Amino acid sequence: MALTITMPEVAKLNDQAHSPVVIQLHQDSAPYEQVVALQDTIEQHLADAGAVLLRGGNFGSPAQVEQLAACFMTQVLTNNTEHRPASTNGNVQRPVEYSESEFLLWHNENTFNQRFPGRAIFACEQPALSGGQTPIADARSVLSQLPADLVQEFIDKQVMYVRNYQADDFVGLGWKTIFQTENKAEVEAKCRDQALEFEWRGEQLTTRAIRPAVVIHPATQAPCWVTQAQHWHFSCLNEDLKENLAIMFDDEADYPRNCYFGNGDRISDQTMAQILQVYQANHQQFDWQQGDVMLVDNLLKAHARNPYQGARKILVCFGDPISFSQL
Predict the structure, then answer these.
(1) 310 domain-assigned
(2) Where residue 179 sits, what CATH number does that domain have?
(3) Are 164 and 288 within 8 A, CB to CB?
(4) How many other β-carbons are positioned within 10 Å of the β-carbon of residue 269?
(5) How does pLDDT run along the chain (327 residues), one tens digit per residue?
(6) What ranges make up the beta strands (E) of 127-203?
(7) Rg (CA), the chain
(8) Which SUPFAM superfamilies does the record associate with it (predicted)?
(9) Does the predicted TM-score (pTM) go above 0.70?
(10) 201-239 CB burial, b ≥16 within 10 A, e <16
(11) Cα(174)–Cα(176) distance, rounded to whole angstroms?
């Protein structure tokens, strides 16, 4: 007997430019089969909106997320050492552990690396009692609303991400955790593969990566603002953390993370404040429901995380890697 599929309802989340698309799956039809039947349409919405929310399908387990990844990713990335695995094969992971009381700023996942995911899947296993949304901001809109002279300076100079690692986990993850080895030669080989400059000071490792701030989307040809400067710049940290780091480290050069222009020039606090204002103006969010899934184009959309209360369980899966050398 053939399975009858009731086609889902499709709408925009809101009236803002590049609003995410919401697909309400029908309870009386198999949810995965509905997604498969609408796969081409979902791909079109991803290319236009940059994010698609699948609702009503109860996709709240690692196995279900892997099933969706098989539809929408040609390759799943399993070596993101910033995240904890949620599945035995590492295909599905937990988000970065970050204070429940703090807002995690907008970022395009891992774009401080030479190679980063082109797509991401977020799934809600358990929503928080309050807060805990995963806001998104459109990289095209952010770029178009930033001052032209600011954008040009970032295009010309790019961004240098500087990271200091202790050997073991201390203030952040140590290099043994991030590079998954205790062998310095292996660390150096991985740095070269990721186009990272590296420097050893005893057991402390410093890496420097110069990356673009603006790229052209390979499929849509849309220019996108993808810098993670707001995720690394010291001025963007909360006041308590800034005070603690200033006490722990005598020299700014020893801070765990910071960023500069690619030529080493300082990025001013005022510039970072402008960037944050534009992200905030393009901030869009929804309340997670158990079983929700959001498909995200990682170049077209930056994502964030709101503070929350109560247990919150989100699953993530990254795939379709892109390299800056290919853009």
Answers:
(1) no
(2) 3.60.130.10
(3) no
(4) 12
(5) 445 556 678 899 999 989 999 999 987 678 899 999 999 999 999 999 999 999 999 998 999 999 999 999 999 988 666 677 787 777 899 988 888 999 999 999 999 999 999 999 999 999 999 999 999 999 999 999 999 999 999 999 999 999 999 988 887 788 998 898 999 999 999 999 999 999 999 999 999 999 999 999 999 999 999 999 999 999 999 898 888 888 888 888 888 899 999 999 999 999 999 999 999 999 999 999 999 999 999 999 999 999 999 999 999 999 999 999 988
(6) 130-131, 136-138, 159-165, 197-201
(7) 20
(8) Clavaminate synthase-like
(9) yes
(10) eeeebbbbbbbbbbbebeebebbbbbbbbbbbbbbbbee
(11) 5
In a domain, 200, yes or no: yes
Give residue 132's Cα distance to chain centre: 15
**Dihedral angle over CA of 2, 23, 21, 75, nearest 10:** -60
Quick check: is 126 in a domain? no
Nearest-angstrom CA–CA distance, 141 and 118: 18
**Number of domain units in the chain:** 1
Please report, as a single letter, which amino acid is at residue 141: S
How far, in whole angstroms, is CA 129 from its chain's centroid?
Answer: 23
CA angle 196, 303, 156 (to 5 degrees): 45
- Return the DSSP state at 301: E
Q: Domain residues for 237?
A: 141-278
Q: Quote the CA–CA distance of 117 and 53 in Å, as a whole number.
A: 19
Q: Is residue 240 part of a domain?
A: yes
